[in-house]
Known about the structure:
Layout: H1 6-28, H2 32-44, E1 49-54, H3 61-69, E2 87-92, E3 97-102, E4 105-110, E5 118-122, H4 134-143, E6 146-152, H5 159-172, E7 176-181, H6 188-204, E8 212-214, H7 217-221, H8 225-228, H9 230-240, H10 246-326, H11 329-338, H12 347-394, H13 408-429, H14 459-466, H15 473-483, H16 492-531, H17 534-567
Parallel strand pairs: 1-5, 1-6, 2-4, 6-7, 7-8
Antiparallel strand pairs: 2-5, 3-4
Helix pairs in contact: 1-2, 1-10, 1-17, 2-4, 10-12, 10-16, 10-17, 12-13, 12-14, 12-15, 12-16, 13-17, 15-16
Amino acid sequence: xxxxxKSLQAYRIHLEEIAKQLHQLAIDIHNNDxxxxxxxxxxxxxxxxxxxIVGEVKAGKSSFINALxxxxxxxxxxxxxxxxxxxxxxxxxxxxxxxxxxxSLKKIIRPVEILKDISVVDTPGTNTISDEHEEITEGFxxxxxxxxxxxxxxxxxxxSAWTFFDYIHKDWQKKVIFVLQQADLMEEPDLQVNxxxxxxxxxxxxxxxPNVFAVSAKMELEGKQEESGFxxxxxxxxxxxxxxxAYLLKLGSSLDTSxxxxxxxxxxxSKLENQIQEDQAFRDDVLHxxxxxxxxxxxxxxxxxxxxxxxxxxITSQSKRDxxxxxxxxRITGRSFRSIFSRNESPKRWLESLTKDLELxxxxxxxHKLQEGIEEIADSISQMARIINLKVQNKQAILKQGDDIxxxxxxxRRSVLRELRxxxxxxxxxxxxxxxKEVFPQASSFSPDLATGSGIAVIGAVLAAITAFDITGGIIxxxxxxxxxxxxxxxxxxxxxxxxxxxxxxxxxxxxxxxDKLKAYxxxxxxxxDQNFEDYDKxxxxxxxxxxxxxxxxxxxxxxxxxxxxxxPKK
Length: 571
């Protein structure tokens, strides 16, 4: 084995550290397949250059391997019938041995000098490779340094081999050479036609400069080295593998594979990013809906307040005009005179009647408008709760079922969303969800019976209770005090001004209680709905933090790969 310079050792150590970080990242995103592949890559960074020999049954792969190793020994058995179910890996060892790793993989150990620099994998025919041969597609191909496609020289165009080539070249971008085996069975002109045909076909498949060799393992094993075609192949191997460039080539190949694996991790991270974006979009949609519904309810509150205040202004203005006219000198004098004969004709009784009529008029006109307004606001608030409920229940459709790439993360998301759906369903049923004891202290008097089993049904009753305040009491009480004592006629101006002042105060009180209490209640319901999402928000924040940590590590690994790629000399 050739000595490796310290600088090359430093490149190897750097690559090993990159592979270690890559492996941990694959573990942390719970992608076990990638983690296993990267683990194999880490194990091979210090191993010999790995040749993977592929081709159809009867293409002469086993004979080719025996001739390539040049030991004179039939290391890979050449059976009369094709062995289609076993992968054989030939490796270096101080003592010859054969170990059956599993039913699909056997390791052949031989003390052959060339095996210190290369390890050879003999695969089943490409037309017999099945799902059971994961060692090829998931084990050896991703970490291979060179793939040798062996064709039968007479017919190098069979589909299964080229289909397998498409997988290797497009998915893994592995270095490939093409070998036309059993060249001794063809005339030279026909052989050259097939060599050119394979070259042209490989170019069409995306290989810039195909390396195509025509060989005869039979002639090589018979000692006819000058005629076998192996000399050119061996020179290629010497120049590209068993040479000062071999280590650089292997490092470059391992780095390329690491970068390919990193890209696969990036695709996996994209799935997590998409999930986070969907989760955030759902949450933003809920917040937007709540804001829209709150605004809609508040506009209805403003509309109700405007209608009630307009009615208040109309009724109180008329009462004020009646008061002003009734306090005229002649009318007061007349009532005073008539009161001598009937107490019901006294100015005091007239004033009491005036305020009583005002009270009845306000209550009569307010009741109908207030009921209509409450129904509209109650419907709006109910709609807010129902729309959010629909969104929560439909969130299930956004989840990616069966996607276990992120393991614990995926399960946690499903768990939190299940809890959100269940909690919100209970929220909709619970009477206390729609009662604000700060705005409405008597809320405790509401029972589940009032809500007929549904919390949302209590909204109208709560709104009615919130708006059940005394509109006229302050005015009537103040007017009564103004009329007490002294001559009413002499106090006419003061009484009218006092009446007007109390009307304004009553209007202010009405507006404040309508707007403040009703809007406070709307805000209370929005806040109560939003509180159901506390665990979901924590989940989303945790997902974002996890993703950011993963993407930071991904970028760090990518930067290290770029750095190492610039450091490694080009051959």
